[in-house]
Amino acid sequence: MEVLMADREVLLFANEVFYQAFANRDIDAMQHIWASGTPVCCIHPGWDAIHVREYILESWHSILSNPESPTIHCRAAQVVTWGDVNAVVCFEQIGQSFLIATNLFVQEAGQWRMVLHQASPTSAKPPTEDDVGAIN
Amino acid sequence: MEVLMADREVLLFANEVFYQAFANRDIDAMQHIWASGTPVCCIHPGWDAIHVREYILESWHSILSNPESPTIHCRAAQVVTWGDVNAVVCFEQIGQSFLIATNLFVQEAGQWRMVLHQASPTSAKPPTEDDVGAIN
With contacts defined as CB-CB under 8 Å, which chain A residues touch B78? Predict the structure, then answer.
C-alpha cells in the first residue's frame, strides 16, 4: 500500500497532463489520459456521474470545444496513495474562484491513467504557490 | 481488477453503514467505517480537503452533533471496481435537494473501510427508487 516518491512525481505528472489537455483544449490528449480498459467515472461540477468512457469523452469534447469554457489551473496538488489506485486531490483555479477535485489514477501498460474525476465548488483556497506538490 | 458480485453487495453494505452512521448521528460507527491504517481524505461540500483521520473524525463529530445538520438518504448507489480500491458513487438526498458523492473503500483486516469521501452539489437527480443498486 505504498508508492515510491518517484511514483508520486509520475502521478503528479499524469495529473498535470490532464490539466494541460484541459488548458490546451486538446481532446486527443484528454482521450489518452482516460483509462481505456478499466471502469471509469466522471462527475463534472453540478452534473450527474458519467460511467461510460465514450460519454465521458463526449462530455469533455463538449466542454473543450466550447469557447465559453473557462481556463483552469491546477493548484496545490496532493497525492493520496493506496498502491494500485492513487488519487491526486487538488484545487482548480478559475479566475479568482476555486473548485476542488479528486482525480484517481490506475496503471495501464505502465502508464498512470485517469479512472475517476470529481470536481466541485469550494469556498476554500489553496495555501500558497509555495505549497504546490505532493505532501501527503 | 475485478471484484465478485458478492463483494459488490458487501461494498454497498459498507456504504450503507456510512449513511446509517450519518442518519443515526453515530460518531462511533462513523469512526469505525473510516480506515485507520491507510491514507484518507474527506471533502465535505464547499470545504477544503481534509487529509488527517483525526481531523476528518472531528469534522464528522461537529456535523453529527449539530442539530441543524440535515438528514441524508443514500440513493442510486453504483459500485465502480478497481480491485483493491473500490468506489461507491451515489446521490445524497436532503429533502428535495441532492448531492452526489464518491465514497472509496479499501479492505483492512477483511473489512471494507472508507478512505475517501467527496460530496458535492448536483442539479441531477437519481433515476427512480427501482434503479437503486450496483449496476456498473
Answer: 49, 51
